[in-house]
Write a structure and sequence with these properties.
The chain is α/β, with parallel strands linked by helices and 502 residues long. The chain contains 18 helices and 16 strands. The protein has helices at 4-18, 22-30, 35-40, 47-66, 78-89, 91-98, 129-134, 150-161, 171-188, 204-211, 226-237, 242-251, 260-263, 266-280, 299-307, 369-384, 426-436, 474-487, and strands at residues 69-74, 102-108, 124-126, 140-143, 166-168, 192-193, 217-223, 290-291, 310-321, 324-335, 347-354, 358-365, 414-421, 441-445, 462-469, 490-499. Strands 7, 8, 9, 10, 11, 12, 13, 14, 15 and 16 form a ten-stranded mixed sheet that branches. It has a six-stranded parallel sheet with strand order 3-2-1-4-5-6, sandwiched between helices. Helix 9 (171-188) links the parallel strand 5 and strand 6. Bound molecules: NADP nicotinamide-adenine-dinucleotide phosphate. NADP nicotinamide-adenine-dinucleotide phosphate is lined by residues 74-80, 108-111, 114, 129, 144-146, 151, 169-171, 196, 200, 367-368, 372. Pfam families: ACT, Homoserine_dh, NAD_binding_3. Residues 415-495 form the ACT domain.
């Protein structure tokens, strides 16, 4: 019986796994550029030819897995320079671990003369990251430039198009183009690693792609932005307001000169959208997330929350429901006793709620050169070992079109802070409207030291009142607040913070 069928399959999978063209296989392995075309048309090679080609494939594989893996790094900032330095410093131990050398051979950045604290004198320099991505002298391309489009996108595409593996830390790029890049990688047989794109040094992508077996995830939530967590933690430790904490975070290098992206919650939304895809198998949808930032959080909110047994954290939360996927980013009251409440400062944490392992909390440094470079390195090592996984957990044609579920009611109720006019009957009017909407009030806090001056405050005397509701629908709360505003008994915009039972 002919063994042409298994032979043909072996050749085809060799070609697909390397992202080669049939002609390249013919030239490099079979010694005949048309060999694969002939094979596909049913021409059966003689048994000695088959034996020769199988041996050549085996030898090629062995040589390739022993040969040094040559890396090209585009972007030599915080993460890129740290990665090059780690790869140089730990070269011997990495070779021992892998049985194969990993060598940075080429780099790209904007300024050739800038001192980056790392020796790049022997490395080939590229001004153009796309040219580096396509260079025939590298085996793997690392993108550490940043930005959702521009040179980062062009270079990553260029590498994947020729079947070259890519590692990136770029969450903005992944959130916007993740599905098309995953498709490109799958078509060309290249690997695409992005462990560092979500929560810096925490190996959450690997856990989701490879570590949970068939466990089904019901909810994922976490603290994914170190800048916001630092600010909220400081506000809890010292009586300083949001703007002062933000200035300190900028002085310490924890916040960008323009912090909007972080403090308004968009960075968390990008990361959440990537996690959500890996958890639930839907296409990435960074624009279909309810997003609220932390800029309106005051000392009063932090103190009242603490007195009631809560901390305020900026959480990204995604959960499956019968109507689709609900994704939201907002400040949240979490019980002080919960594990996530203990994650302070610039630390990040991600919790995965699954049917098999129940709750898994991964916590660690979410940013910074060394933790992020370490995640980039772990992707490089996986690729050097020959790991093959679909970038988004399932092959991209199997991703479901994103189905956005409406915001749901929250089990833990709501924290509402409002400035009531200091007139007889104001509080009674507020309580009446709440009752009309079926909202039960758990606590009412009114202390002179909690007075918050809202921008809309005029010379009208007000008292700041905090209400904690029992479980209720968000629509009920919003309707009650609209009625209260229309009654004219409050001044300014109420503060509304969801309470999560975790
Ligand atoms: N920093 C972190 O803690 C962290 C954490 C997680 C993920 N990330 C992600 O990692 C990536 C890199 O972040 P980073 O903090 O290292 O950024 P960075 O310090 O701003 O470095 C960016 C690098 O890209 C280079 N670059 C910019 N435009 C270029 C172009 N057109 N051609 C070639 N090179 C160009 C810059 O060159 P010059 O140096 O010559 O200007 C610089 O070396 C981003 O996607 C970021 O979101 C960072």
């Amino acid at each position: 019986m002919s063994d042409i069928q298994p032979f043909r399959q072996t050749v085809e999978s060799f070609i697909a796994s390397r992202g080669w063209t049939p002609t390249r296989f013919g030239r490099t392995v079979a010694g005949d550029p048309l060999f694969v075309f002939d094979l596909r048309e049913g021409r059966e090679p003689r048994s000695e030819t088959r034996t020769r080609i199988l041996k050549a494939m085996q030898e090629y594989g062995e040589t390739k897995t022993r040969a040094p893996m040559r890396i090209g790094v585009a972007g030599l900032g915080n993460v890129g320079a740290t990665l090059v330095s780690i790869l140089q410093k730990d070269a011997d131990s990495l070779t021992k671990k892998l049985g194969r050398q990993i060598v940075v051979t080429s780099v790209a950045a904007r300024s050739r003369s800038r001192d980056r604290g790392v020796d790049i004198s022997g490395l080939e320099w590229f001004d153009d990251p796309v040219a580096l991505a396509k260079s025939p002298d590298i085996d793997l391309f690392v993108e550490l430039i940043g930005g959702e489009d521009g040179p980062a996108l062009a270079a990553v595409r260029a590498a994947l198009e020729i079947g070259r593996p890519v590692v990136t830390a770029n969450k903005a790029l992944l959130a916007k183009h993740g599905v098309s890049l995953a498709r490109l990688a799958e078509e060309s047989g290249a690997q695409l690693g992005f462990e560092a794109a979500v929560a810096g040094g925490i190996p959450v992508i690997k856990t989701l792609r490879e570590g949970l077996g068939t466990a089904s995830i019901a909810r994922v939530y976490g603290i994914m932005n170190g800048t916001c967590n630092y600010i909220l933690t400081r506000m809890g430790e010292e009586p300083i307001d949001f703007s002062e904490c933000l200035r300190d975070a900028q002085d310490l290098g924890y916040a960008e000169a323009d912090p909007t992206f972080d403090v308004e919650g968009f960075d968390t939304a990008h990361k959440l959208s990537i996690l959500s895809t890996l958890c639930f198998g839907y296409e990435i949808a960074p624009d279909r997330i309810h997003v609220e930032g932390i800029t309106r959080i005051t000392q009063a909110d932090i103190r009242v929350a603490a007195d009631l047994g809560y901390k305020i954290k900026l959480l990204g939360i995604a959960q499956r429901s019968d109507d689709g996927i609900e994704q939201r980013v907002h400040p949240t009251l979490v019980p002080k006793s919960s594990a996530i409440a203990g994650v302070d400062g610039v630390m990040n944490a991600i919790s995965l709620e699954t049917d098999h392992v129940h709750e898994l909390l991964l916590a660690g440094p979410g940013a910074g050169g060394p933790p992020t470079a370490s995640s980039v390195l772990s992707d490089i090592l996986d690729i050097a070992r020959g790991a093959k996984v679909p970038p988004l957990g399932v092959p991209s044609p199997e991703l479901l079109p994103y189905k956005q579920a409406p915001m749901r009611a929250h089990e833990g109720g709501y924290y509402i802070r409002l400035n009531a006019k200091d007139v007889p009957g104001a509080l009674a009017a507020i309580a009446t409207r709440m009752a009309e909407k079926g909202i039960s009030i758990e606590s009412v806090i009114q202390r002179p030291d909690l007075h918050v001056i809202e921008p809309a405050d005029t010379d009208i005397v007000t008292r700041t009142v905090v209400l904690l509701t029992q479980d209720t629908l968000e629509s009920n709360v919003r309707e009650a607040l609209d009625l209260i505003a229309a009654d004219g008994v409050i001044v300014g915009r109420p503060q509304l913070i969801r309470i999560e039972t975790l």
